[in-house]
Amino acid sequence: MFPSFLEVMKTLISGIISGQILTAIGASLSRLLIGFTIASVLGLFLGYLIWRYKLVEDTLGFLITALQSIPSIVWFPLAIIWFGMNNMAILFIVTIGATWTITVSATSGFKNVPRLYQNVAKTLGSSGTHFLRTVIFPSSVPQLISGLRIAWAFAWRALMAGELLGAGGGLGQLLEAGRSLGQMDLVISVMIIIGIIGTVMDNFVFLRLESKVQKKWGLS
Amino acid sequence: MYLTIEGIEKSFSHQEKGQIKVLDNINLEVEKGQFVSIVGPSGCGKSTLLYLIAGLEHADKGEIHIEGKKVTSAGPDRVVVFQDDGLFPWLTVMDNVTYGLLLKKIPKKEAELKAREMLKMMHLGNYIDSYPHQLSGGMKQRVAIARALVMEPEVLLMDEPFAALDEQTRMVLHKELIEIWKKTKVTIFFITHNIREAVLLSEKIIVFATRPGKIKATFTSTRMKDGFTPNDSTLFLEKQILEVLQEEIEKVLKEEMGDDYNFKTDNLHRDSSDNLGSHI
Ligand SMILES: Nc1ncnc2c1ncn2[C@@H]1O[C@H](COP(=O)(O)OP(=O)(O)OP(=O)(O)O)[C@@H](O)[C@H]1O
Ligand SMILES: [Mg+2]
């Protein structure tokens, strides 16, 4: 039932050369990037509202903690009803998978800005959006990065699940295509690619960024 | 009078003990350009008073006025050197020092020139592009002092600014501070645990009593200031201040140690006449 190592390698390389795998990677990553960007903007904004307004914290803040515990693929049926079985539906679950986590980490990042930094900025004359931009936000960066890392993992998983079930010509769909054609070598090739992308993002992008920031911010 | 503090009261709520009164009926008048030191046992509310003047805390009772204007919030006319450096770790030394200047709408070129000069004065000329995490504790504190001084505020509030520095640096900075003070006639509030430092630098020395914080005694010294040469009269003043402070320290020790305290204070008397209270 398993194809030989050589066969997998051949499919992998020819898939990359023919562009089949590369196109799939491109489709998946661009979808991920769009969803992740929306989630970041949304998460930061919601985090700001929760941090800023007690009323929002008591209502939305509580709701988001609950929403966070729902695996994002659970939203898929709803997404299909709303958007149809298409790109939008996948984008939706990718976004929703990351948004809550980013919101929660933004909220706690903003809340944990040391009093001392705030006092320094205020006595030097900072206020309003300048204060947000130069103190609250940069001071939260370490926590935001940790949040983004976890959010990215959620979004990545949601993306694969969505593509596998849905459409849109990404890696997940290629996986499904390989299965329906009985092409095990293709399935395993795609699995390898998925593993590599996940590892690279986590270890080389996020972990590295995280430790660099923690050092600079004097947290480690 | 330039700065008046009238009937200030401040309490903090404490989880177990309920409301704790930290400052009780503080009254103080300060002339423009005066150098005022505050000494007192740890936890007596010195920092709290400084925060009130800075506008970072609000009093439960009483008012603070500067040039007749009531202090209601923080502003760049009253700059603070905090007990901990409070440098922004995401900014370079240069950007930390120019932070307030740029907020004052000073052109970037001019701000950087000023910052560079001040950093050189603090012997940090080689660290202008470093990040705070690359500096030692004493260096960070000096950057924080530079950040406050470049602002050329009306009132400079300093919370144990030199506590983390070595003796040599401290002496150099005493001189620089006196120079700047003479040149700019800034009004300075200076908290310290070091009685000698207080006597050498300031014109007015306020000794705080503790629990609740109150002004226990006020001393004045009007001699020429150079910031580092003790003479007969400063030594005499140091002695007087130490005596007053001693009672307060004993009060704290008595509370904290209970019955053991008689035994311990015997040692304290001998120690502190050498160290002049730098241990409190
Ligand atoms: N934000 C706060 N909330 C609750 N209690 C506080 C707060 N700030 C200060 N206190 C309490 O007020 C008292 C005085 O604190 P403060 O920092 O003014 O003392 P201090 O005289 O500066 O002491 P030190 O010499 O050790 O710096 C302390 O008992 C402290 O626990
Ligand atoms: Mg203090």
Describe the structure.
Chain B: Residues 3-235 form the ABC transporter domain. Chain B: It comes from Psychrobacillus insolitus. Chain B: It catalyses: a quaternary ammonium(out) + ATP + H2O = a quaternary ammonium(in) + ADP + phosphate + H(+). By secondary structure, chain A is mainly α. Chain A has one domain: MetI-like fold (Orthogonal Bundle). Chain A has helices at residues 5-18, 20-52, 54-68, 76-83, 87-111, 115-123, 128-165, 171-180, 184-216. The longest helix of chain A has 38 residues, at 128-165. Chain B has 280 residues and is α/β, with parallel strands linked by helices. Chain B has a single domain (3-228), classed as P-loop containing nucleotide triphosphate hydrolases (Rossmann fold, 3-Layer(aba) Sandwich). Chain B has helices spanning 46-54, 93-103, 108-121, 137-149, 167-184, 195-201, 232-257, 261-275; strands spanning 3-14, 18-30, 35-39, 61-66, 69-70, 78-81, 155-159, 187-191, 204-209, 214-220. Chain B has a 6-stranded mixed beta sheet, with helices on both faces. A 4-stranded antiparallel beta sheet of chain B has the order 2-1-4-5, with helices on one face. In chain B, helix 2 runs parallel beside helix 4 and helix 6 packs antiparallel against helix 7. The longest helix of chain B has 26 residues, at 232-257. The radius of gyration of chain B is 19 Å and the shape is globular. Chain A binds chain B through residues 116-117, 119-126, 130, 134-135, 138-139, 141, 215-218, and chain B through 51, 54-56, 73-76, 78-80, 82, 84, 86, 88-90, 99-100, 103-104, 131-133, 147, 151. Adenosine-5'-triphosphate (ATP) binds at residues 12, 22, 42-48, 83 of chain B.
